[in-house]
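user: Kindly work through both lines:
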Amino acid sequence: MKLREKVVPLAYGHVLEVGMGSGVNLALYNPNKVNMIWGLEPSLGMRKKAMSNAAKSPIQVEWLSLPGEKIPLGDNSVDSVVLTYTLCTIDDWRAAMKQIHRVLKSDGKVLFCEHGQAPDNSTQKWQNRLNSLWSKAFGGCNLNRPMIENIQSCGFTIDWFESDYIKGMPKFASYISFGVAAKNR
């Protein structure tokens, strides 16, 4: 939650949260800056879990039940996009990022907090060895995606980011990057 707190409160305007899950981020949004939130969550079970969090939110939440690869919003309709621990699980993350690029306004921002590929070779080797088993055990989550490179490769420039391991967790599963990206002009 401490890492989510570094990016979610930066959201503004009409927000798209991709992979809203149980709605844990809803308490972190600033209601003075956010007009409404589209919560994209393909899992009915997760949307049901999120209902109590959505009911407590002072911000209107509209659910989108399609996967991230098929965002049912118009071009240039979103001011900010929130991605927290989401890009690791989307099968076709490139298609999802292209959809995010399409719906994001030209001056919009992508706010991200994602885990992924570690910078050191020894940890990367473990991530690659364990990825298939980890993905099966944890709902399609991938350990070894290079998040900063992936975001940049889909038409975004990183405004700023920080990366580090989470203390107290195994290195293979705890390399986190968080920051802000903008559409390339």
Remarks:
- Helices lie at 4-7, 44-56, 93-103, 121-137, 147-152.
- The first strand starts at residue 13 and ends at 18.
- The two ends are 32 Å apart (CA to CA).
